[in-house]
Amino acid sequence: MSTFPQPDSRPDPRDRPARLTVGVVGAGRVGPVLAAALQLAGHRPVAVSGVSDASRRRAARLLPDVPLTTPAQVLERADLVLLTVPDDALPGLVEGLVDTGSVRPGQLLVHTSGRYGAKVLDPALRAGALPLALHPAMTFAGTPVDVQRLAGCSFGITAPEELRLAAEALVIEMGGEPEWIAEEARPLYHAALALGANHLVTLVAEAMELLRAAGVEAPDRMLGPLLGAALDNALRSGDAALTGPVARGDAGTVAAHVAELRRHAPQTVAGYLAMARATADRALAHGLLKPELAEDLLGVLADRPAARPGPGGSGGTEGDDLR
C-alpha cells in the first residue's frame, strides 16, 4: 500500500503522480462521486462495475474513459476499492468476493454504508484486506455537483486503529471532515442522520403539497427562507429555537390544524400528531411550554374530540403566526 500523507498535509495533486488505483463496485449515486473526488486528489480510477442503465450512464458522466467491468475485475485492477452497494447487499457482496478469491492482501476495501462499521468487512480482513468504513453524511444525486458538495462534508469513519491515518487522509483528500464513530454506535449514528435528513425531505414535500392545496403558487419560494432560517436556528440553538403553536401551548390553533388536515390531507394527520407530540415533549422539558397550557394541548394531540377547545380556547397568544 502506498504511503498516505498526514491529515494536515495536502499536497497539490498536480505536483505528484497518482498514488492509488481506484475501483468502484456499485455505480450508484455515491461511488462514482467519491471516485471522482479521489481523482481530483491525484488517485487514478481504473474500473467500475454497474448493472442498470442508470448506473452505467452515471459512471460514464462522472468517470469518463474508465472501463465498466465485473466486480471481480474491479478488485483485480484496483489498490483501493469502493464498495458502494445498498446496505442489505453489503455483507453478501463481501462474502462473495472473498469466497471467489477476488480480495488481495494489502488491498484497501472501503464501504460507504452508514449502518455498518468495519466488522462487516471481517471476511475480507481475514483474507488480508485493509477495511475502512467511510460514510459521507451527505445526500447525493449522482451528478458532478456532488463532488463539490463534499467540501466540508463530515464522514463517519470506523476502522482499525492502525488504519486511522489512512482513513483520515482519504477523507481529507476528498474535501471532507473526519468524524470517528465507534463500531457499536454505527446503527444509532445512522438512525440520527436518517431522522434528520430523510424525514426532512418528507416533511418539506408534504408542506409544499399542502401549500399548493391552499392556493400558493410558489410553495418552494415561500418555504425556502422560512425553512432555511429554522434550520440555521436549530443548528445554532437546539431546542431553544422551537417556535409555533405547539411550543406556545396554543391548543386551539393546533386543533384547527388537525381538523383542516383531516379534511384536506388525512394521510398527513398521523405524522403531524407524532411530530407535534415530540415537539411538545421537548418544549416542556426545556421550559418553553408552560405546564398549565400543556393539558389542553396534549388532549388535542391525543386526538380525543372531547378534549379539543374551540377557537377561543385556552393557550392562545397574539395571532396564529409561526412564532
UniProtKB/TrEMBL annotation:
Every Putative oxidoreductase/dehydrogenase Rossmann-like domain range: 15-136
Domain DUF2520: 153-279
Cross-referenced Pfam families: DUF2520, Rossmann-like
InterPro entries to which the protein is assigned, alphabetical: 6-PGluconate_DH-like_C_sf, DUF2520, NAD(P)-bd_dom_sf, OxRdtase/DH_put_Rossmann_dom, TM1727-like_C_sf
Region spans: Disordered: 303-323
Protein's name in the database: DUF2520 domain-containing protein
